[in-house]
Amino acid sequence: MATENVANAAALGAAQGPTQGEYIVHHLTHLNSTGEAQKSIVDFSVLNLDSFIFSTALGILAVLLLAYVAQRATAGVPGRLQSAIEVLVEMVADQAKGIIHDAKSRLFVAPLALTVFVWIFFLNAMDLLPLDLFPKIWSTYYEASGHDPHHAFLRIVPSADLNITLALALGVLIVCLYYNIKIKGIGGWVHELFAAPFGSHPVLAPINFLMQMIEFAAKTISHGMRLFGNMYAGELVFMLIALMGASWAGMHSLSGGLLFAGHVIAGSIWAIFHILIITLQAFIFMMLTLVYVGQAHESH
Amino acid sequence: MEHILGLVALASGLIIGLGAIGACIGIGIMGSKYLEASARQPELMNELQTKMFLLAGLIDAAFLIGVGIAMMFAFANPFVLK
Predict the structure, then answer these.
(1) Are A289 and A120 in contact (CB under 8 A)?
(2) The whole model's pTM is what?
């Protein structure tokens, strides 16, 4: 994997000669519906096609994998894949049981948590593919079809796109609001909005309401930002490591050899550490989903 | 121009450095408490380990978001118009 990065990055550097800054900026630009980099920070008319396509494809892949295992599941001696999926499902079911005490809600929320975990794990795992593999294929194709390869943008880690992670967090918020209303009733929930956390005195009502709104906003934004921040920083570190390999001009000088060794060693260490990060972040997102939905079940 | 670049470089260093201080203190306190707790009650070790990793991810997250932002400032500097 690391040597491929070297070859790709070096080839890119030799062919087009981007500076280090240009290389990073090019890799941080999404393939979107306008065909160029997004100009303003918030622009709802832009659709990031790469995140959309990769997240949908990975979602379908995850569903197919789980369906394949579920169909071939046997009560006899299970295969390795079946055992792994069984461990996974049991783990999620245990966590759900510990956090959400309403067995009826759990029928929906536990599968939701499993979906969230598996999907986010797949999205994050795209980080482990060679950094330049897909962008290089895409730019070669783009050039072959008669376009400028400098505008062939592609980012393959959907969870390093803030739009995707915040959309997931908003989905969880909607589930929370649904359970708030379902469990407490609309009147009960509105009463809680104005009476918790400080008490149901009329003077305290606006403060309570403000606190509740801040709590919902902070929960949702930190939920999405946490996943995004981890994946974005991880992707950037992979790019920096790739740049180290791209500076390698040959084995004839000592610094060249050191850069090559540094690339291989740093790339391997970071990739191994990243296996922990991608699993942990998917797990944390799932756990927080369960915790937030669990909070929606508690009445004050 | 150079002025802005220098300030942004300093800012990136501060973002990463101060974030690292906080995250390291947090992880250190949690790790020491975990070791203490599992020395007192070794039978709880597995259960606590899951929770420790969960919290480690939570503590790390704010720091890593900072690292991401600092890296973006350093390489795709939004303050200098190209």
Answers:
(1) no
(2) 0.83
